Amino acid sequence: MAKAKVYVVTAPDRIRGIYASWPDCAAAVKGVSGARYQAVGSREQAEAMLRGEGTELEPGLYAFVDGNHLGGVGVVIVERAANGDPEIVEAVGLTVAQVFAGADVRALSTPPAVRAALERLRNVLAELAALHLALRMLPEGAAVTIVHDYEGIGAWLEGRWRAKDPLVAEIVAACRDLIGRRRLTVRFRHQRGHAAAWAGRDDFAHFNARADALASEAASER
After folding, report:
1. H-only helix segments in 138-183
2. pTM above 0.70?
């Protein structure tokens, strides 16, 4: 069962706390100068923020992937060493057409085919393109956590969803092939899209927002 979303207020002190609903939070912060608040995915995360801890990446390699309905794709590769802060290894913004140019997805081998697919599948195509790109960018043999804000990324690759659309099925198969050929060890983590990192530290929200921004920039320049 999904954890219920709650709202956390970390400043000022007189309204600090966890609020069960947006109306409750809005009533507390309305008219309060310097109020710092945001929605989080669980009470545990809210309590960590109130303690000043927030949500940090565990040591390891991460690929934050995102795409939008305009055909923009963003990928941010982040690594955190055991005794260091997270660092961006590589950050790329491309279009869906650029991602699949010369790739192994036959149904997207021409620009007209990409345009038609984007018109039909919209952001789903771009989200899958971001995954495909990330799997090509990662070092061979790497163990990585793919962080995605579209649930289908993890659900399709882990087999929890069945890809009914033929093109989606082809891209999913191509991604699985990349994982196998490049000897990647992959796990998936869903991150709520457009989450703020205003009330306290949230590395997942921060780097997801960076991937989203790269996708938007790429779409605007196409």
Report:
1. 152-157, 166-181
2. yes
